[in-house]
């Protein structure tokens, strides 16, 4: 058992013992109130709360940077399929389990058909199947698949690649057709899942390693038995950050927003590529750079000597400084680490490769030292994150409960004293405390109401600045992009002759749509994530400042507190907590709050095609008349395409503005505003708990003071037993090695 596990076990035991002590208060009239009841519930829920916290680590990088190999080396086994294709969009999540198990979450037929419909958007209706009594497109129909096969070959035969890479609509159609036979009996009308466990675990790789089959997969979750994997950690293998499909990038972004740490891999063979720069800029815009660690994944076959590898490392680190100051970077070979950690499962070829690498000790020694440094630093970071998520704030609540319990014990001991004057004095002090606490509660209620009002106004103002369709930062950026976009019509001249105007219009439109969707993902969605993160930081700063304004010493509320503190030993129990007064991540988890997905689907009306065809017909007629009259006339096709592009841009702008308006409402009303309200309630409860010793009816306490000697003696014995047990709990809290974690 590690020291962290021992600490967590001790905290859980302390919380359990403290709950039992508090339950004993029921034997004393007036001692067990709503505050004590809340404290018991918190202590009972603490073990599950501590154990349920999950640290999410995203492993990201461009294609062929070794992400999957890195994860396999971490797991010390070749569990994930290596060498996935360029277009694979799956985020594979890996967690510790009792046995090997893979869950493949499949898309529904409706989701699949909608993706294909998007890939066919603006293609001539008369040329498509699904007319008549069975409208729309359905991959399950043979004639629809036949159409797609012919369509892909005919339309994309000479123009399947653009400046941005493989056309995503061509990839979608190819994968859908090629993978259909393998999944036709597995995909359902609704979302479904498959499970592969034990000896069948390896079968999951067919769904993650085959691009055609992977098209039908929505998500993958693996449970592994790797000894080195902490049960509180989830590792996500985020495939190709340089995918040409913006939907794939959006899926990676969604995971990054919930990740506690990002490990970014860079291949030593390729160095820092433009795809890396673009993606790192996106991470920077999302406000996630403080959570990132870089790994130069060394290809030991690529470098003549160690100096060559060190030169690559130096160049990459220098280039990274333009994005992040003082980047944290480690250089090692994930494949070498995998081979050395999983020797028993190596093939003959892999063993020979490992033997060859071991003949160059300068490589091995350097990369091994870097691996050890990375492992040590990673463990430190995870301990820090683990402390925050699992220990810091819950432990502060337990500490406060113990403090209040000590205060109650001292107070009720005096109230039950046989010395009547001492009991009366204690009664007066109790009345004073109750009065002061109620006043403080009223002040805090007013402050919280004002705080929520101020923050909501600031959030709405910030959202207006970002999202407003006319003056917002995002609207201006999108407007600049759309108005500045221009199609190179010379690329489509041959298609105009061979395929006709409608088919060429479809290709031109899909190219524009892919560019806009990519811009929306990389610029707009990332900007929205950064905005939400900035708002969260602002909320934290606001409440921290408010907390400092309430930095009241409990001794100021009553001399009773001062007497208690003076009598207790100087331990960590009575020192001011170093934890944050608010815990946004815990609150988000409890409420199930998350930033709404910023997925963008441009809406275009079919009228674009109709108007474009009408325009084309008019221009063609003018061209014919000009020829009859032997006048020079411009070519009809390019002019009509230019006019169609202008119409498409106008439709796109309208669609984007509607999207921004809808998303502004979602991010403010469904995420930030509920978050502020929940934080204010939690903040109020925590702050009040510092000062609220009791919330009892004075009549009940007066009856306790006036009770007979025999009854008082029995209750005093109960208090004495509680005091002994609580002293033990206090001592255990004081001796916890919290400084190790902090």
Sum up the structure in keywords.
742 residues, alpha/beta, Four Helix Bundle (Hemerythrin (Met), subunit A), Rossmann fold, 4 domains, 9-stranded mixed β-sheet, two-stranded antiparallel ribbon, 11 strands, 62% helix
Mean pLDDT: 78
Q: Which blocks of ≥5 consecutive residues have pLDDT under 50?
A: 552-579, 612-633
Cα radius of gyration in angstroms: 33 Å
DSSP summary: helix tally? 26
Q: For the largest beta sheet, what order do the strands appear in spatially?
A: 6-3-7-2-8-1-9-10-11
Q: What percentage of residues falls in helices of 4 or more residues?
A: 55-70%
Give the domain tally.
4
Report the β-strand fraction as a percent range.
5-15%
User: Which class best fits the helix and strand makeup?
Assistant: alpha/beta
Got a strand count?
A: 11
Distance between the termini: 20 Å
Overall geometric form: globular
* Major β-sheet profile: 9 strands, mixed
């Amino acid at each position: 058992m590690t020291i962290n596990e021992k600490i967590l076990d001790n905290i859980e035991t302390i919380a359990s013992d403290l709950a039992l002590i508090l339950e004993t208060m029921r034997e004393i009239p007036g001692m067990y109130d709503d505050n004590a009841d809340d404290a018991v519930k918190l202590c009972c829920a603490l073990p599950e709360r501590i154990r349920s916290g999950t640290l999410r680590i995203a492993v990201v990088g461009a294609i062929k940077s070794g992400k999957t190999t890195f994860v396999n080396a971490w797991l010390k086994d070749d569990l994930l399929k290596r060498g996935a294709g360029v277009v694979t969009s799956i985020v594979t999540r890996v967690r510790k389990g009792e046995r090997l198990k893979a869950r493949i979450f499949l898309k529904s037929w409706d989701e699949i058909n909608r993706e294909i419909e998007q890939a066919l958007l603006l293609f001539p209706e008369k040329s498509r199947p699904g007319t008549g009594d069975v409208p729309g497109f359905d991959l399950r129909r043979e004639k629809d698949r036949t159409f797609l096969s012919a369509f892909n070959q005919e339309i994309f035969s000479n123009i399947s690649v653009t400046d941005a890479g493989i056309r995503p609509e061509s990839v979608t159609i190819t994968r859908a057709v090629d993978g259909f036979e393998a999944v036709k009996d597995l995909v359902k009308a609704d979302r479904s899942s498959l499970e592969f466990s034990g000896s069948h675990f390896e079968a999951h790789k067919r769904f993650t390693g085959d691009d055609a089959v992977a098209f039908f997969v929505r998500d993958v979750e693996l449970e592994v038995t790797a000894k080195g994997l902490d049960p509180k950690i989830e590792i996500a293998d985020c495939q190709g950050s340089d995918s040409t499909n913006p939907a794939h990038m959006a899926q990676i972004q969604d995971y990054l927003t919930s990740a506690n740490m990002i490990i970014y891999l860079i291949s030593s063979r390729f160095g820092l590529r433009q795809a890396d720069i673009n993606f790192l800029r996106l991470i920077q815009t999302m406000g996630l750079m403080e959570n990132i660690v870089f790994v130069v994944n060394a290809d030991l076959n690529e470098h003549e000597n160690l100096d060559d590898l060190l030169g690559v490392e130096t160049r990459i680190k220098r280039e990274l400084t333009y994005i992040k100051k003082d980047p944290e970077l480690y250089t090692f070979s994930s494949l070498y680490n995998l081979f050395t950690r999983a020797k028993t499962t190596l093939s003959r070829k892999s063993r020979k490769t490992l033997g060859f690498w071991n003949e160059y000790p300068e490589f091995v020694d350097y990369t091994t030292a870097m691996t050890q440094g990375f492992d040590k630093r990673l463990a430190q970071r995870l301990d820090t994150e683990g402390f925050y998520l699992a220990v810091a704030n819950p432990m502060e609540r337990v500490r406060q409960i113990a403090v209040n319990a000590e205060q109650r014990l001292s107070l009720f001991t005096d109230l039950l004293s046989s010395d009547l004057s001492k009991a009366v004095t204690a009664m007066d002090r109790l009345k004073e405390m109750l009065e002061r606490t109620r006043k403080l509660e009223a002040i805090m209620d007013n402050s919280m109401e004002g705080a929520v009002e101020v923050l909501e106004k600031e959030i709405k103002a910030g959202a207006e600045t970002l999202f407003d369709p006319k003056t917002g930062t995002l609207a201006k950026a999108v407007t600049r992009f759309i108005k500045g976009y221009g199609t190179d019509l010379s690329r489509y001249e041959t298609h105009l002759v061979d395929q006709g105007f409608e088919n060429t219009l479809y290709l031109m439109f899909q190219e524009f749509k892919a560019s806009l969707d990519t811009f929306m993902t990389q610029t707009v969605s990332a900007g929205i994530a950064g905005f939400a993160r900035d708002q969260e930081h602002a909320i934290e700063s606001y409440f921290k400042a408010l907390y400092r304004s309430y930095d009241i010493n409990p001794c100021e509320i009553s001399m009773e507190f001062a007497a208690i503190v003076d009598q207790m030993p100087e331990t960590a129990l009575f020192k001011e907590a170093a934890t944050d007064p608010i815990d946004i991540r815990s609150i988000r988890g409890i409420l199930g709050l998350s930033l709404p997905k910023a997925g963008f689907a441009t809406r275009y009306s079919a009228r674009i095609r109709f108007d474009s065809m009408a325009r084309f017909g008019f221009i063609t007629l003018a061209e014919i008349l000009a020829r009859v009259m032997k006048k020079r006339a411009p070519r009809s096709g390019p002019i009509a395409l230019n006019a169609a592009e202008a119409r498409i841009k106008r439709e796109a702008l309208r669609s984007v503005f509607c999207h921004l308006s809808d998303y502004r409402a979602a991010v403010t009303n469904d995420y930030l505003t509920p978050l502020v309200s929940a934080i204010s309630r939690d903040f109020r409860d925590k702050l009040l708990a510092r000062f609220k010793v009791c919330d009892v009816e004075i009549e009940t306490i007066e009856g306790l003071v006036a009770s007979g000697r025999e009854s008082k003696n029995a209750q005093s014995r109960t208090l004495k037993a509680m005091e002994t047990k609580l002293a033990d709990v206090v001592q255990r809290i004081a001796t916890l090695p919290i400084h190790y974690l902090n």
